[in-house]
């Protein structure tokens, strides 16, 4: 059978075509080095009297922006690949890998903690590069035959409702308090610590904590199932954004639980108190100065952004489901995403040392 007969145009099988399929995971390989370059430039900023101060300042800003650009490249690649109406197997796999690129910051943090705990001889940036290299090979080796697209991939209604109800419970019992608690870091570590003491009494109790952990794991499992269902058909950018945010959250939630419950509270001897000092890597010099911990800047920032924006995408679907004009639903989602970005920025500025003088 000719490639035209299989529904594939010749320009979709060449070397350049393959390159566009793997551009996002290729960019992901650079992620740890953008952070390393940021760290080197940021270390020079602390000497404002030096004539090169401005150059290093701009360099640090540029490299941090490049680190954030990598998940954005993954998102744009997923949008493009999800729009293909009759994709090949290679294109469909490239779409899945591009969605993983969105989660690169959370994957790199998770990998870094596991690498540290296992005392791995393979440095985490190389383990990370190996992961993307394997995924690139998997895409390149994939056939250019048509992928069997499902005509209707409706997600089971009961699971959708359960995912939504669990989200409201998590928001009410934990997430709302947790985000406000991190915002208090803008006032100072003491404000963060004393607020944490009060809110931890709610979600950290012997009764609530196991239920919360179960609810978060349920979100990962149910969300992954729903995402897999939606990915069987082609999807619009709104749906892809919701799925990409979910993929990020899956790695973020599992990595966060590993850091707090396994690494800090069980593996470390003596156990590490998981408070402000732990979150901001005080013992290692802080989020900007520490060569390991500056990965936490994009990791946390996107964690806050995606968890709120993902719910904004859910709000959009709910508004459309209630027959409200799509235009309104889109605006509501953009509004929530903009608020999510501002919230993430405010929390990160506090964690990186900015203080609001409220007295
Ligand atoms: C704390 C974690 C999470 C929260 C708070 C959350 C919240 C939500 C909310 C509020 C919705 C809208 C529900 C509805 O339309 O009824 C939703 C939908 C969705 N979530 Fe999550 N989610 C979380 C984690 C995840 C994860 C880890 C994934 C994994 C990929 C995921 C994937 C999805 C998908 C695919 C949908 C669309 C469901 C559909 O319309 O069929 N979510 N999420």
From TrEMBL:
The keyword Cytoplasm does not apply. One of its GO terms (cellular component) is membrane. InterPro entries: SQR/QFR_C/D. The chain crosses the membrane at residues 21-42, 54-76, 96-114, 126-143, 164-187, 207-228, 240-264, 300-320, 332-356. This is Uncharacterized protein. Keywords: Membrane, Transmembrane, Transmembrane helix. Signal peptide: none annotated. Coiled coil: none annotated.
């Amino acid at each position: 059978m000719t490639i035209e007969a299989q529904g594939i145009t010749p320009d979709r099988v060449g070397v350049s075509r393959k390159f566009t399929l793997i551009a996002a995971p290729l960019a992901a390989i650079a992620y740890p080095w953008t952070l390393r370059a940021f760290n080197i430039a940021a270390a020079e900023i602390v000497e404002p009297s030096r004539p090169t101060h401005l150059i290093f300042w701009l360099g640090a800003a540029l490299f941090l922006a490049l680190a954030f650009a990598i998940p954005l490249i993954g998102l744009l690649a997923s949008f493009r690949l999800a729009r293909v109406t009759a994709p090949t197997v290679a294109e469909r796999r490239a779409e899945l890998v591009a969605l993983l690129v969105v989660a690169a910051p959370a994957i790199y943090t998770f990998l870094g903690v596991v690498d540290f705990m296992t005392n791995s001889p393979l440095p985490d940036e190389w383990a990370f590069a190996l992961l993307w290299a394997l995924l690139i090979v998997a895409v390149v080796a994939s056939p250019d035959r048509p992928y069997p697209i499902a005509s209707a991939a409706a997600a089971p209604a009961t699971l959708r409702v359960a995912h939504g109800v669990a989200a409201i419970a998590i928001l009410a019992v934990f997430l709302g308090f947790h985000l406000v608690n991190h915002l208090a870091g803008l006032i100072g570590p003491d404000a963060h610590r004393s607020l944490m003491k009060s809110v931890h009494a709610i979600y950290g109790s012997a009764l609530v904590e196991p239920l919360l952990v179960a609810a978060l794991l349920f979100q990962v499992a149910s969300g992954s199932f729903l995402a897999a269902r939606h990915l069987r058909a082609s999807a619009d950018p709104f749906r892809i954004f919701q799925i990409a945010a979910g993929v990020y959250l899956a790695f973020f939630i599992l990595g966060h639980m590993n850091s707090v419950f396994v690494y800090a509270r069980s593996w470390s001897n003596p156990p590490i108190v998981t408070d402000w000092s732990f979150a901001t890597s005080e013992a290692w010099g802080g989020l900007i100065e520490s060569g390991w911990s500056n990965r936490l800047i994009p990791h946390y920032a996107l964690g806050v952004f995606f968890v709120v924006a993902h719910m904004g995408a859910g709000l959009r679907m709910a508004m459309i489901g209630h027959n409200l004009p799509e235009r309104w639903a889109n605006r509501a989602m953009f509004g929530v995403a903009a608020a999510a970005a501002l919230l993430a920025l405010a929390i990160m500025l506090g964690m990186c040392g900015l203080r609001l003088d409220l007295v």
